[in-house]
Specification:
This protein has one domain (2-138): Ganglioside M2 Activator Protein, Chain: A (Distorted Sandwich). It has one helix at 2-15; strands spanning 20-22, 30-38, 47-56, 63-71, 74-82, 97-106, 115-124, 129-138. It has a five-stranded antiparallel β-sheet with strand order 1-8-7-4-5, with helices on one face. The protein has a three-stranded antiparallel β-sheet with strand order 2-3-6. The two termini are 16 Å apart. With 139 residues, the protein is mainly β. Monomer. Belongs to the NPC2 family. Residues 1-17 form the signal peptide. It comes from Polysphondylium violaceum. Residues 20-137 form the MD-2-related lipid-recognition domain.
């Protein structure tokens, strides 16, 4: 459940630019150039599909993703996950250059209504930041 919620929050955050902010720097290795989401407003219990594209300025062969997700003021996730793993929706290695990906996920019907916030930071195999995103989602 928590892993699904984490992934859905990340997908919704990227897709809905008014719900996310870039907490990285100009030195981040990935820059988003286009995002399309359907439906445009997430609905509990329904699928959401996101198409995203951008430019990655280096090949990524490993690294880590650190996520802190809160429901209101309660921390529900505070964990590190390997960037490259068998359950990662982005297969590794990820080559440098233009990159696009389409992802579909179901927003859990039993996700409590309310405000979710998250800070998600991905670093590469050299511990350099790939991207950093802050998220604010109301379900």
């Amino acid at each position: 459940m928590l892993k699904s919620l984490f992934f859905v929050l990340l997908v919704v955050a990227v897709a809905q630019s008014q719900l996310w902010s870039n907490c990285g720097t100009s030195a981040d290795h990935f820059q988003i150039t286009d995002v399309t989401v359907n439906p445009p407003v997430p609905v509990k219990g329904q699928d959401i599909t996101v198409y995203a594209s951008g430019v990655l300025n280096e090949q990524v062969t490993g690294g880590n993703v650190h996520a802190v997700i809160k429901y209101g003021f309660l921390t529900i996730v505070n964990k590190n996950e390997p960037f490259c793993s068998s359950d990662n929706p982005v297969p590794c290695p990820v080559p440098a250059g233009n990159y696009n990906h389409t992802v579909s996920a179901t927003i859990p019907a039993n996700a409590p209504s309310g405000k979710y916030t998250a800070n998600i930071v991905a670093v590469d195999q050299n511990n350099q930041e790939i991207a950093c995103v802050n998220v604010n989602v109301n379900l």
